Amino acid sequence: MGFLFNQKECQELQYLLRRELEELLLDLGDKRIDGMIRMAMEERYTTVFKMYGRLASPTELAKYVRNKTSHTVH
């Protein structure tokens, strides 16, 4: 499936994806979340990260790479 976005729409989509990645990284860092919920969140993170990777520069994308020891946004 393909979409055509103008520049303003691309910027808005990038903003939404960044906010979602930040929330997911924050939640994945919460040790109280485990089991099926954590697995679902990890799947969602992977999907959103791949989507953001289609729009963002490598430098911007690197800010949201998941570090297994620390789940904070740089």
Q: Radius of gyration over alpha carbons?
A: 13 Å
* Average pLDDT for all residues: 90
Low-confidence stretches: none
Taken from the alpha-carbon principal axes, the silhouette is: elongated
What is the overall number of helices? 3
Order of helices and strands: HHH
What would a concise description of this structure say?
The chain is built from 3 helices and no strands. The chain has 74 residues and is mostly helical. The radius of gyration is 13 Å and the shape is elongated.
Word description of this protein:
The chain has 74 residues and is an all-alpha fold. The protein contains three helices and no strands. It has helices at 7-28, 35-53, 58-62. Helix 1 (7-28) packs antiparallel against helix 2 (35-53). The chain is elongated. The relative contact order is 0.17. The model has no long low-confidence stretch (mean pLDDT 90).
